Structures are given as structure tokens and as C-alpha cells.
Amino acid sequence: MIVTPSILALLPFVNAAGVHKLKLKKLPPTDSNPALEGAYLAHKYGASSSQSPLLGAGGSGRRVGHPKDGEQLLWTQDHLKGGHGVPLTNFMNAQYYTEVTLGNPAQTYDSSASSTYKANGSTFSIQYGSGSMEGFVSSDTLTIGDIAIPNQLFAEATKEPGLAFAFGKFDGILGLAYDTIAVNHITPTFYNMVNQGLIDAPVFSFRIGSSDEDGGEAIFGGIDESAYKGKIDYVPVRRKAYWEVELDKIYFGDDELELENTGAAIDTGTSLIALPVDIAEMLNTQIGAKKSWNGQYTVDCAKVPSLPELSFSFGGKQYPLKGSDYILEVQGTCMSAFTGMDINLPWGKLWIIGDVFLRRYYTVYDLGRNAVGFAEAK
User: Fold this and answer.
1) Which segments of the chain does DSSP mark as H helices, in order?
2) Cα→Cα distances 34→122, 124, 341, Å
3) DSSP calls for 101-156
4) Residue 359 to residue 7: CA distance in whole angstroms
5) CA distances (Å), 51 to each of 9, 41, 236, 317, 343, in order?
């Protein structure tokens, strides 16, 4: 777990014990550099190669435009009314983050100003291709809405590699994956919520919205039965690291591709669909996508309604996406969600299934049964 003050990336939060809902919100537009869209995602999963740039995690606030005419395509971040005092925010349906506080009194963190700070003394390091993230571990009260988690260990970063972190909209990262991959064996925040009885069940769930009126909802400790249609189908976790399930096959129009030893990480912190470069190139070719000046594949917006369905098979059940799901329209430009990234792990290949899928399907992350649940979102 990596935490630096104020803004925390890719994170759903609760505000009291039990089962808790939190409305997702959007923020006003920002403007930044489009050059490093894929760097954070590649760092996170250790990709050996990637199609660059990627509009995804770590790509918030990017300027995506055409230098020939000087126009800029900004990430849309309009305000949503209502909700709680700790909003989860949404950049162009691409990155979600929220504000948290550390210490007592709650603050943009300065350990010397906190009465509950405890020095830990251990160092912290994560190695990336572009260098290492380094720092030291501290202990303090982590406050999420109205819930306070005492003695939460976290890392204060003193060195961050590459510009992906420098240009990211977030100040810190709080992981929701298994504790097996926690650096220094630090107990993750969600595990502390469970262990301290702050939530009713070892479960969190997501409904990701896409409209200005409804940015979606995150729940810790339970499931919102009004947020989905039919029943939830659970698929066992393939390996207790990421929330990774077996990807049996994909269907694209009338074509079927059977996959072997392939996992899919269901990732609320990723906007797109990251898949092997050769398959990404094939799909982008079949939908008539053309590579733009910045490496992003774009399609003719008029053709989106006629594009074939793409279906993922998890646990023997198909979960289809329409062309309007896997094509992102940003101020008149239609961009493909298929991003090439080779992630070859010792136990097999890994795809990353992000928010273009999660906007269609309500997902449940059940630590008790070590499974991911899927249902069609309302």
C-alpha cells in the first residue's frame, strides 16, 4: 500500500460500520500532458511491452488532442450533486479517486502535526522498470468519511520513478488486492476494516456509472441488490494476488477465440481493456480503427452502432459488450478501448478488464469466498 497525502487513487470508501454506500462524483476539467498515458498501468502489472499511450490509470487530466489544429480533448469531470463528504471522482469514465485524511487532527499529512503518529522505522521500496519508488513506513489513523482506522501502516514516498507518478492526478495509491502482494507484508486497509469489525462482511462491490447525473456507487461490507438485474454469478479467484479470474475465451462477432492459461484481472483502477499486443492489433483492425498521432486507436463515430459485440467468458458464461461500450467518445473523437500490453506471468498470461466492462456489469469482490461476482448492472 502506498499513501501520500490528500488524494488517493482508485479507491472506494465507506463512512461507518456495517454496509455502506458511497456515491461516485466527477470533478471539473483539468489539463495536462498526454505523453505517458500507459506508464502507470505498465508499472502496476509489470508489462513487458505496451501499446502507447494508454488512457487509463495514471492518465487522469491528460490533454488528448490533435496538434495540427491546436484543439484539445479534455477529460470530462462535471460535478454531481448530493452524495457524501468524501467523493469518489471520475475522470472521463477513466480514473476514479477520492480524498482521505491521515492523522489526528485529520489533515493533508504532516506527521509532526499528528498526535496519533507513530514511527515505524522500516524502509519501503517497489522496483519498476523506470526506477524504484522508495520511502519509509509510518503508522497513523486513516480516516475514510466518518470511519477511522487506527494504527494503519502506510508508506510515505520520498522518491517516485518516472513521470507517470508526477503527472498522475492522485497523490497516493491504496490497493484493494490481496494482502499476499502487499509490500513489507503491511496489512491493507480493507483487511483492517474486516479484522476490526468495521464492516458487516468481507466484501466490497462496485456499480460504475457513466452519466453526469449518476457516477455510480461503491459499497463496503455488502451488496446493493437494486443495482443489478438477475442473479450474481461467482467465479473463483485464479490466484490470490489481484482479483483475477480465469478467462476461458472471447467472442467477437461470429468469431471465437479459445484461450489457455489466461487470467483476467478485474480492475476498477483501469479504464480500458489491456490485452496481448497481437490480439489488440487484430481487434483494432477488425473494427476499422486507425492509429492517431498519439498512438491511440480511433474509429469513425458513425460506425460505432454497427460494430460487433465482444464477449468475455468467465466461468462458462458470456458477458457481452456493445460497440458503444468498448468505444469511448471524447468530445467528438471515438477511441478504441483495446490497448496492447503483454503481461506474461509465471502462472500464465494476464488481461486487465477495466471500467468499459464494469459500467455494464455490477461486480462483487468477495474475500470470504475468494471469488468475483458478476451481474448485469441496471
Assistant:
1) 39-45, 162-167, 189-195, 277-286, 323-326, 355-358
2) 36, 29, 18
3) EETTTTBS--GGG-TT-EEEEEEEEEEETTEEEEEEEEEEEEEETTEEEEEEEEEE
4) 23
5) 23, 11, 30, 29, 12
Instruction: Identify which of 192, 118, 125, 155 has the alpha carbon closest to the alpha carbon of residue 8.
Output: 155
Task: Mention every residue, 6+ apart, whose C-beta is less than 8 A from residue 125.
Answer: 132, 133, 134, 135, 183
Mapping DSSP to helix (H, G, I), strand (E, B) and coil, where does residue 195 land? helix
Distance CA(30)–CA(318), nearest Å, equals: 37
Closest CA to 237 of 181, 193, 153, 309: 181
Rounded-to-integer distance, Cα 183 and Cα 136, Å = 12
List the one residue out of 75, 65, 69, 74 whose CA is nearest residue 294.
65
- Tell me: the pLDDT tens digits for 204-222? 898 888 766 677 787 888 8
For 316-334, the pLDDT digits (tens) are 999 999 999 999 887 788 9
Largest distance between two CA atoms of the chain: 63
Per-residue pLDDT tens digits for 337-361: 998 889 888 888 999 999 899 999 9
Cell, residue 87: 467523493
CA distance 240 to 221: 20
Residue 235 contacts residue 243 (beta carbons within 8 Å): no
Ramachandran angles phi, psi of 180, nearest 5°: -65, -25
Cell 448492472, located at residue: 377
